[in-house]
Design goal:
Blueprint lengths: L1 H8 L6 H8 L3 E5 L4 E3 L7 E7 L1 E7 L5 E8 L3 E2 L2 H6 L6 E4 L3 E7 H10 L1 H28 L2 H11 L1 H4 L4 H8 L3 H10 L1
Antiparallel strand pairs: 1-8, 2-7, 3-6, 3-8, 4-5, 4-7
InterPro entries: cNMP-bd_dom_sf, RmlC-like_jellyroll
Organism: Chitinophaga sancti
Protein name: Crp/Fnr family transcriptional regulator
C-alpha cells in the first residue's frame, strides 16, 4: 500500500484525509501470467496500479494481427482510460504477460472522491497530462516519422529493461512491424 501511495504522490501530494478515504476503495489482486484482465468490447470498471508484473494493452484485428498500444510494467497505472471516461466498451484488451500483483480500485468510486478531494483531482490531472498527452504525443510522432530501425532503437533507449522481458512478436506488435522485420533489424545491429 505504501508503494501505491508513493506512486500517487509523485503526481501530486495527497493529504492524510484523502489517503484514508482512498484506502477504503482499493483491493490487492494477484493475476497469473496469461490472464485476460480486460476483453475488447467489455466495459471497464477498474484502474489498477501495477505493484509487480507486466501487461499489454492491445487491439486485435479479425485476421489475428495484433497492435500493442502500450505496455504496463510495475509502478504504472493501468486502465482502458478512454473507455472508462466515456463509460463505454473498450476497443482494446489487456493481458497479463507475467505473474502480477495489482492495487485495483473502482473508477466510479474514484470519480466520487475526485469531487470531494481537490488534491486527488490534481493527481488525476497531472497523471493524465504526463501519460495520455506528453508520452502519447511522443509515441505518435516517433511511430509516424521514424524508420522501423529508429523506432526499435528508441524503444531500447526508453525501455531497456522492458525489452528483455518481452518476446520478439510483442515488441514487433508494439513497433508496428513484423517479427521478421524486427529479427532483421536486430541482426543488422
Amino acid at each position: 500500500m505504501n508503494t501505491f501511495f508513493t506512486a500517487l504522490n509523485t503526481y501530486h501530494a495527497l493529504e492524510d484525509e484523502t489517503r484514508r478515504a482512498f484506502e477504503k476503495l482499493v483491493r490487492i489482486r494477484e493475476i497469473p501470467a496469461g490472464t485476460k484482465y480486460l476483453s475488447a468490447d467489455e466495459v471497464p470498471v477498474f484502474v489498477s496500479y501495477i505493484y509487480s508484473g507486466l501487461f499489454s494493452y492491445y487491439f486485435q484485428y479479425e485476421n489475428g494481427d495484433t497492435v500493442i498500444k502500450k505496455f504496463f510494467p510495475e509502478n504504472t497505472f493501468m486502465a482502458s482510460t478512454s473507455a472508462l471516461i466515456q463509460h463505454d466498451k473498450s476497443r482494446y484488451a489487456i493481458d497479463a504477460l507475467e505473474d502480477s500483483i495489482v492495487v485495483e480500485y473502482s473508477f466510479t468510486e474514484f470519480k466520487h472522491l475526485l469531487q470531494k478531494h481537490h488534491d486527488l483531482a490534481l493527481f488525476w490531472i497531472n497523471y493524465l497530462g504526463r501519460h495520455w498527452v506528453v508520452e502519447k504525443e511522443h509515441l505518435e510522432i516517433t511511430h509516424k516519422y521514424l524508420s522501423a530501425k529508429e523506432r526499435y532503437q528508441d524503444f531500447l533507449v526508453a525501455s531497456p529493461t522492458l525489452a528483455g522481458r518481452l518476446q520478439l512478436q510483442q515488441i514487433a506488435a508494439f513497433l508496428g512491424i513484423t517479427p521478421t522485420q524486427l529479427s532483421r533489424i536486430r541482426k543488422s545491429m
